[in-house]
Amino acid sequence: MRLSLFCAPFALLAPSIAHAATCEDSFAKSGSFISGQKFNASVTVPDLAPASAIGQMHGIVVAKGYDVLATEAEEGTMLIEQPQTGKVRAFPITVTATADGTVRMEAKLRAGMSASAEGAKNEMCGMLNQLKGGKVGRTAAAAGLNATGSKATMEIDALALSHQVSKDTERNAAAIPLRYQEKSFTLKGTVKRVDKIGNDYVVLYDIPQPYEEVIRLPNAAAFKTDLVCRMARGQSVYALQLKPGKGIKLTGVYDRFDPLGHMMILRDCRPAS
Fold first, then answer.
1. With contact defined as beta carbons under 8 Å apart, do 123 and 156 qualify?
2. 84-88 long-range contacts, CB within 8 A, separation 24+
3. Strand 200-205 relative to strand 184-197, pairing
4. Sequence spans of domains, the chain
5. CATH topology of domain 3-144
6. CA dihedral 190, 192, 194, 195 (to 10 degrees)
7. pLDDT per residue over 25-79, tens digit each?
């Protein structure tokens, strides 16, 4: 569900009905803007085993641009996220499939987030209604488990990404490599320093300590996350001309995360055009 499209107040809907005739009939909303809203929807498809349902859902959600954090097809469970885009924060969605062919989705919005109930219903049921049973479903599941989506480059200020990763670390550091793997970023910021490690030149962004920030965001993490760009081959001339305080805009791909040192490293970095 795309919150940037569906943000709007909405009325409380009727509770979900078990094994409702359609996905749309099953849809329900609970919670509140203050505590965090939840959306639920389900379908029941004949001759649909849990592994087939999860395999199919994997292909469906990847095609729509969701991040898949965990997939356990045989157990009938999957955890996905709508990725953060601009000011819209990421939020988790669980998919659960049972032996009777029922597949349930639950989206949990974070406190302070809001989405259109109609938009959420259309998004969730639009995915669930694609599930097929029998041989057709099993064939789709085999392809779905191997599906990979296109990863668009996200342009973001380095300080904003640092805040985002720090908050993610507070919630669950183990999810960060799954959330950011293979994602590309164009980071705008300033140089703190340039080092040479082995044959690689690395650029460290200047990220202030929380107590040094002029404007302190509410509910921000109590620590900072450093951002490091490992420059691509052929970028030595560029890297050697950088100096502390110089404005930079580099594009790179997530490489790894150090939860103890609070550091995220990007690889193959180049000046953004």
1. no
2. 84/154, 84/164, 85/4, 85/154, 86/4, 88/2, 88/3, 88/4
3. antiparallel
4. 3-144, 154-271
5. TATA-Binding Protein (3.30.310)
6. -150
7. 999 999 887 888 899 999 999 999 999 999 999 999 999 989 899 999 999 999 9
